[in-house]
Amino acid sequence: MNMNTNLIYYLDPYLKQLKTSILAVNQTPEGKWNIQLSDTIYYPEGGGQPGDKGIIEGKSGIATLLTQKFKNGKLLHVCEVKNNLNVNEGVVCNLDWDWRYKYMKIHSAGHLIHDVLMSIVPNLNPLKGGHGSKAFIEYSGIISPNIQDQLEQKVNEAIILNLPIKTWESSVEQLRNNCKFIPPNLPVNKPIRAIQIGEYTPMPDGGVQVKSTKEIGKVQITSVQSNDNLSKITYRVIG
Description:
The protein is of the alpha+beta class. The chain has helices at 8-11, 97-120, 148-160, 172-178; strands at residues 6-7, 17-27, 33-37, 39-40, 54-58, 61-71, 74-83, 90-95, 125-130, 136-140, 165-169, 193-197, 203-204, 218-227, 230-238.
């Protein structure tokens, strides 16, 4: 029996509701419930992007999504359950779209900032990024704070161009052939993916993204800081 979940959030990140069924369900020692679905629209936290929120409704009960996690290659939805939900039961998944779309835009903005930044300061090595409520990108290398206004202007000019944002599943070999930078900690228990904005260089990414830069809105670069060969850019999306 195939116990893997179909990750519909990659196939259609704009899908807000989905009918599916329960593959497995069990209660944790803390009183929460782990639910594995046949298909899911709920993105788990990863790549600096927060995980989704939502409600899973069945005939016998309702589950409020708390978080999601990959365990032994399986995607588990950790929930609070009212009444019961059972194996093989048909359910309806409802996505908190406002939450999802907010962080899709913030995540896509982070990638666009990176792409534009590399055209200004090409010899940087990206370290990590956080695309939640306090969004940032960190690099090994020096970024002058004097580029803050230039970076913000160029990012917002790229947004207006309505550049397409493409994502796809990839192999490690394909990433090495096509991407300038490959992080050393690529996931081993979930799909490896790539993103490309317009004609910028592709890069690894496991998140869910908007379809074009115009959807992002307006980006504000709130700070550019450098210290001891470590640089950090903080930003936010307006609108």
